[in-house]
Amino acid sequence: MKRLIPVFFITAVFFVACSDVDTDHSGTGTLKVDLTDAPAEYEAVLVDVQGLRINVNDADTSEGDWMDLELDTVGQIDLLMFTDGNSVQLSEDEIPAGYLSQIRLILGDNNQIVVGGDTLDMDTPSAQQSGLKVNVHDSIADGETFSLMLDFDAEKSVVEKGNGLYSLKPVLTVIKE
Fold first, then answer.
1. Are 138 and 176 in contact (CB under 8 A)?
2. Which domain holds residue 63?
3. Which listed residue, 44, 53, 101, 137, has the most CB atoms within 10 A of its CB?
4. What is the pTM of this model?
């Protein structure tokens, strides 16, 4: 019996502590997504932005549904125009309140680099269908505006394959504002 009392006490404390956690994810919030870059040694790094998807669910532990965001900027973007604190807004969209687990940036096939005045195509095999998936792991409350910055590192993302050929293997980081 003496052993059951501590177990009962710990269980009761656990349930009281858990009941204080805000689990109400009803309503909507606003998600604002910007894109920025660090300087790179190229004349231009052009990426073809075609989509932005998020994964939001109503609990911190289960997989949610993927949702497409309305894009404010579509098509080719020169990443090097958005360095030194400059950014471009990709989307500002109303989304369901809840747990934002991941975001995916979907690129098209019109990705190019400008080197020595020449505009060269870059292969981007993985980003065209499923998108570049980045973890966010944060909650968005009803009525809240949640801003995040996608930092697309052009210097690390461009891979010279030799013979004047380049590929784009995007390196992205999420910065929560």
1. yes
2. 25-176
3. 101
4. 0.79
